[in-house]
Each structure stands twice: as structure tokens, then as C-alpha cells.
Amino acid sequence: MTTLLHIDSSIRSTGSVSRQLTAEFVSKWTIARPGDTVVARDLARDPVPHLTEQMMGAFFTPADSRSPEQAKTVALSDTLVDELFAADVIVIGVPMYNFSISSTLKAWIDHVTRAGVTFRYTETAPVGLVSGKKVYVFTASGGVYSEGPAQSMNFQETYLRVALGFIGLTDVTVVRSEGLAMGEPSVQAALTHSGRMIDELVSV
């Protein structure tokens, strides 16, 4: 049985294309694989707090040396890390905000990127410890950033690939929905393309 971790990061509760696509993917996945388990995390409804000095201090304190307050501080991060390790498949909805990802998704990444837990340093280079998982990223953007002059402004996908790869998540498939602010024909073309990709990915 497969465990699928479904993460949404759009601040919009309605009208969100990234939410629409992750929901469609998860629905079709579970229809094709009814025995699988889905764990959902909505970073807009239940935002992860941004890092503080106290949190960082707790992260770098050995578990058996933490104060009760530090243990409480680390609890949510530990839960997020446990969800990540338990998942076989990870689905992330990622709208583009000002050329990058939402601050809530960045906060989630900050909580699951922990030295000695999800990556470790070696004498030559850092090594990711979260391996053997498949990641599907559904991006949404008002403009087109996968090609042309605007490609250099796409910090959304490039950052995600680096951040996920750093902790060992290197098997990443990105489904782009672009041009969503460029008129209804562009929207329909993007949704049709993404829908076809979802069908192909789910059927594998």
C-alpha cells in the first residue's frame, strides 16, 4: 500500500488552479489505487510558522537535552518530517507569487530541511536522507515562465528543484499551468494540457 502526501500552498480557498489540479490528481490516483492512504496538509488553512531563533536553537539541541519548551517547539517540525518520511508519493500544489513560491511553502521547507534528520553533511558535500520517493509538483502562474525572456524570472521551479533535491527528493515531475492571466483561451489550453498530463501520470 502506498502513502501519498498531498500538500496545497495556495492562499486561495476557491478559484485556485493549483488546488484544482492537485485535487484532480489525487482523486484519479485514489480511484486507480483505492487501497492507498492520502495524508493532506493545507498550508493556507493550517500555516506552518516561520522560523525563529528559538526554533533554530531547539532544532540544534540533541533530543535528549531539550527543555520541555524546546520539545514543544520542535513537535510540529517532527510531525512534518515524519509525514515526509512516511510518504511514498508527494504531491505539491505551487502557485507562483512574485516569481517564487508562497511564504507558507517556504516555511514548510524550512521545517523539513534539518541537518542530521533529512540531510547530513559529509567531508565532500551534503547528502539528502529522504530518498526513494516520487514527487509531483503542480505549478500555476499568470504568465509564461518556462521559455523565452521570462524564463530567467522563474525562481518558483528552480528553487523547488534545488530545495527538494537537497534533502534527497530528486525524482520530481513538474506539471506547469502557465498563462493563466492571459485570457480564457490560454487558461483552457493550460488546463487541458495539465489534465492530459494527469491522466498519463496516474495511469503509469
From TrEMBL:
Protein task: Quinone reductase that provides resistance to thiol-specific stress caused by electrophilic quinones.
UniProt EC number: 1.6.5.-, 1.7.1.17
Cofactor(s) annotated in UniProt: FMN
EC class: oxidoreductase
Family membership: Belongs to the azoreductase type 1 family.
Catalyzed reactions per annotation: 2 a quinone + NADH + H(+) = 2 a 1,4-benzosemiquinone + NAD(+); N,N-dimethyl-1,4-phenylenediamine + anthranilate + 2 NAD(+) = 2-(4-dimethylaminophenyl)diazenylbenzoate + 2 NADH + 2 H(+)
Entries under SUPFAM superfamilies matching the protein: Flavoproteins (SSF52218)
Record-annotated Flavodoxin-like fold domain positions: 3-191
Gene3D superfamilies from the UniProt entry: 3.40.50.360
Subunit structure: Homodimer.
Annotated positions binding FMN: S10, S16, V17, S18, M96, Y97, N98, F99
Protein name: FMN dependent NADH:quinone oxidoreductase
Molecular function as annotated in GO: electron transfer activity; FMN binding; oxidoreductase activity, acting on NAD(P)H as acceptor; oxidoreductase activity, acting on NAD(P)H, quinone or similar compound as acceptor
Key words, A-Z: Flavoprotein, FMN, NAD, Oxidoreductase
Cofactor note: Binds 1 FMN per subunit.
PANTHER family reported for this sequence: FMN-DEPENDENT NADH-AZOREDUCTASE 1, FMN-DEPENDENT NADH:QUINONE OXIDOREDUCTASE
Superkingdom classification of source: Bacteria
